Every structure is written in C-alpha cells, then in structure tokens.
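Fold Annotation — chain and its backbone
Encoding — discrete vocabulary of local shapes
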Amino acid sequence: MTLSLKDFYSEEISTFQKNGASSALKQLWARGNSLFQTMEFPTLKDEAWRNTNIRPLLGEAFARTAMKEISAEEIENTVASLPIQEEDYLLVTVNGIFHPEISRVPVIAGSCFGGLRRALQSEESKRIEALLDSSPQPKHIFTALNEAFVDDGIVISLSEGVALPHTLHVLCLSAGGEEPQAIHERLLVDVGRDASAVLAIHHVTLDDRAPIFKTFVEDYRFNNNASLTRLESIRDSSSLYRIGHLSVEQKEGTRLDSFSLALDGAKLTRNEIEVSLVESDCISNLYGLALNRERNLLDNDLLIHHHAPDCESRMRYKQMLQDSSRGVFTGKIHVDQTAQKTNSEQLSANILLSPQARMDAKPQLEIYADDVRCTHGVTVGRPDPQLFFYLRSRGIDAPLATKLLSFAFVEDIISAIPVCSLREWFSEEFWKRIQLAV
C-alpha cells in the first residue's frame, strides 16, 4: 500500500529520532513531532498561503539527506566567490551539519560559536538549553518538520559587551544526490547586553541533480542595547524548494538591520519573518531585494509586532520579475494599544520585466494605539516610460536603458548596507545578473 505523504514523513521522523542526542535536542524533536502529527499541509484555501501554490513541493517525498562529502576544492571555490575577507570569521555547514575543520571560529571568552550539538555539550550548555526551551512554537507543518528533524545547525551567542571586530559569515552549503532529499537546518543567535556584530549568511546550492527541500529556521534574541546587522545572500537552484522562518525578539534599546538579497532564486521560496519589539526604544529595519526569473515563485511573509512604546520599524522589499515568475508580498505592522509613539513605514515596490510575470502584494496595518505614525504603500508596474524615453533621447539603446533603470531600482536597498565590502559585492553581483536577465 502506498504511504500518504504525511505517513512517509512520520516514518522518517520515527527512524531519525532513534539517534542519540542531548535531552534538550530530544525535547525539541518531541515537540516538533507532536505538532507535526496535529497539523496538515497548507492549501490555497488557507488565507496565509492563498497565493503560494505548494503542490509541486507536495508532489515529491523528500527523504532526509545523508552526510554529503564536498571536496576541499569546491569549498575553496565557493568561499572565493563570496565577500569573505581574510580577517573575517567563517562558520560552514554542509546539509545542515557544522564542519569545524573548514571553519574559522572566533574565540571570545564567555561567547559561543559553532555547531548546535557541540554547544549543548560545552560549558555554555545551560544557556543554549534555555534558548532552545524558549524558542517559538512552530506555527505550521513545515517549521514543525524542521524541529522534528534538526540534527545540528549553528549557535552564535555573544556575551555582554562584546563587539565582533570582523564580519561573521555563515556559509550554508546544500548538496543533493540522485534522489530527492530534505535538509533541515537551524540557526540560533543570542546577542548579549551592549553587544554588536555583523552577520552575513550565504546560502549556496552546489549539486542540484535531484530536487532538494530545505527548511531553514532562525531564532534571534536581543538583550538590552544590543545591535546586529544581518545580511542574507541566496544563490539557490531552480530544483530547490525553500521554506525559511526568522523569529526575532528585541528588548529595550536594541537595533536590527536585516537585508535579504536573493541573487538566484529557488523554484519555490517562502521567507517568513516575525519581529517582536517587546520593550521600548527599539529599531527594526527589514530590507529585501530579489531578481525573480523563469517560473520561480518567491513569497515574502513579514510581521513586525509593536508591543512597547517609542519604537521604530521599516519594511522595504523590492522584486524584479522576469519571464513567467511569480512574486508574493504580505507585510503586516501590528501596533498594540500600549505601543504609543510608534513610527513605522512599509513599502513593497515591484517591476514587471515581462508580460507573463505576476505580483501579488498585500500590505497591512493593524493599529490599536492613537499616537502613532504608520505608512504603507505598494507599486507594481513596468519601468517608468518617461525615464526610459529620457535615456533613449540621450542616445542610449533600449536594452542598456532597461538595465540602467533596473539597477537604479535596486540601488537604494544596496546602498543601505553599512559594510563597504559587502555593499560593493552585492552591487556587482546584482549588476551581473541584470546584464544577463534584462
């Protein structure tokens, strides 16, 4: 008898969870499995997924991937293609498993960097266990799968007052095989009081002979007056399905600047971000940029929840859509009655570079306070014809004019990146892709 997809994953979970692990990890597995059993796969009838057709993802049974060997040459070539300086730190995972032998791990007293399994066996184990215990409960079946299957991942825990002098890069390599495979990866970040860092996460797919299903769950905690710049570069393949979920909790006086930049998209990508500003004087800025091609689908689902007064937030997401690609943006700012003096902005700007491309955008404001400044806006359309005419009148041919307008469209996001080497690299990479795409 053929197993249903849910029965297939249930058997996979049962087999996987027979492996040895710490009590904290086993508790996480148990919670994930319990929730998975009570949940169903979403459909287009579910409001949160009504513009995201996941039927292709549900058409395959993805077995958990085995340990994958990647040659030193492949690693070196990948690192060389990224904006990683000699003095920078580097943490590398292959299919969700941390590899210390090819990493450059910071050594800072009282702080913890490296694999989740190792961290749970270190002197910092109690702190890491407490973070795992308080991690947000999965809200849908895919993040429940991540909890039930997570074998390792990355832990970054900055102790009080630590300011990392160099960028910390996390390189997440995905490598499949001959059969469809699943990768479930986790990143846990705890930024101590008065601590600060620049974190650059790079997703790279190396082997896409068969479809890959990847879940990537991030959990960030900010203690008082902490600050973090988070940059995410995505170089996926068109045979990959990605479900990403980022949860952020910010306490008093903290700041997050997050940049999600999709250079090469997956066949299906859903990026979920939930930010909770739980104490006053927080700043949270979410920026996103993508060049969507072929028949790929990119869905950004964002929520910033203002619980406390005197906080600022910003969402600014842009997509360029070519061929028959599809984009979805759902952005929500929720302002509690206690969150007076909130200052929030939201913008989804999108350019259609093909008649077959499609964009669905739904900005939302839910406000229960009366002393706030909150704005939102959406634009969807072709490149500005007046600007196009101006460039043509100056002797610039039509293809180059379209490329220049496309690059000008993304430049304000890229120029907001505070680290010069990263800003220049993203600028060059987007220009290369615009040259090929437009």
Summary: The radius of gyration is 21 Å. The longest helix spans residues 398-415. The chain has two domains: 5-386, 387-438. The CA atoms of residues 180 and 211 lie 5 Å apart.
